[in-house]
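Chapter review: from sequence to fold.
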Amino acid sequence: MLDLLLKGGLLHQPNGSAPVFAAIGLQGGQIAYVGDPVDAPAAREVIDLSGQLITPGFIDSHNHLLLGFDPEAVNLQDLVVLDEVRSRLAEFANSRPDLEWICGENANYSVVEGRRPNAGDLAGITNRPIFITTYDQHSVWLNDVAIRALGIEPGVELSWGRPEFDEVTNKPTGWVTDFYTSAMTTLGLKALQRDIPMYSPDRRYRKLLASMEMATRFGITTVVEPQVPMAELDLFNRALGEGKLTSRVIAALFHPIDEGSDFRMELKSAIDNHVPAKNLSLGPIKLYADDVIEPHTAWLLDDYANKPGHRGNPSTSVAEFHHIVAELDRMGLQTHTHATGDGGIRLVLDAIENAAKLNATSDRRHGIVHVECIHPDDLSRLAQLGITAAMQPRHCSPDLIEGSWMNNVGEDRWDRAWRIKSLQAVGTHVALSSDWQVGEMDPLVGIYSAMTRASLDGKKSWTQDERISLSAAIDGYTKEGAWAWHREAEFGALGIGMAADIVVWSSNLHEYTSDPAGLLGQSALLTIVDGQIVHDAR
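The token string follows.
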């Protein structure tokens, strides 16, 4: 007897095929029946649908669960004008006299036209220190009180970032770059936990749980947390032990770029000694090839359009990066490498190609994350080398990248931006994801963005040649996500014997093929993980 039978729905078919009416039966955590409802075995529970779309569970291949919204911090996500930022910070500070620090999240780089924000822009809001992370987590914005509290002055180094100093006065500007690459190191995290309340283990754990709840609500049945410091792995083990990992989690362990062979052995030991669990596995190793384009810290092959003579830098020397990737590859480990600039992307491609030759390895399925600005000469290399492009369609929306990103890269290189369709066309496995909380976690927002290359209000669109179909976008969140992590035999398809990770959507999403804006009004009706309903919005 089946545990659960879903009938009256439309089943998603991969590779652009039309969905089909069929029943799907679940038993013992697996799909046990697909076919005509008349012929279905008896079931303990039957759910009648009304033509809603049934898909494999969505796989979010790059989702920072540990960066979920903090209720004791102020969210600046939707603000693009400095006066609005100041008002919201002041309102929050006045409402929370109990907080020693005023922490903010998701600030935009371009809230001050023509320049980067500085400490002076935060003057007079409060007499307490202000600590604000940008929407991409790669920069921090401080007020003067915070600068003094942290002891930032010439000659002082931070373990969690690189403070900027005024070229004329040599005084700290209140801006700190290279944040996230440093903050999740052992020393960086220890310092943040000591100085910044937002990074306490308890607050980080609450963020993790809130993000997990969101994931199941949005139809995400497998989440790849792409940057787990060894020091925070216990947070996931705690959530597993408490039964709070309602979606499956693949944890990518973070490799700070300055760590050596001994640390790589620690990573290998942690993975080898991990006790297998259905909802928690240790997967790839997270690396950085460069930083991000907005603060001019990504590595470009040519000068930034608005900063002549400056191309950014790789995270380490080319030789050292090649060495790290080759050693991890030789140890049998998969890499998941952040690269945004065309220089950073080429560095990863060259390193993976070199590793495969040195080690005579194949099918590691190393991944490049973001792939924001790829040189045309490198477009086919990901497919040739068996590399997954883990990409975030929402990132290319004009309402997110107008200003800093577009201006920094320059219009002559806009045709290199987030080339999802072109990469798919040459056979690259493109796994789609949110990069929560940089972008909204809801995969329907990602699908809309992939289909339109437009802002959420639909008023602005760009690089339209890279738009993809609804079916291709769903595949990017399902079968391509499964392939990326060597899990295609278990997840990503609605076949007999596959894991019973399934989403029933609120409608037939294909009704919005010609009007993608309608997707933004839809939602996950049922989310099923391992045959168990973990979200029910009926």
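Two observations follow directly from the output. The chain has three domains: 2-57+498-536, 78-134+139-177, 201-484. The longest strand covers residues 2-11.
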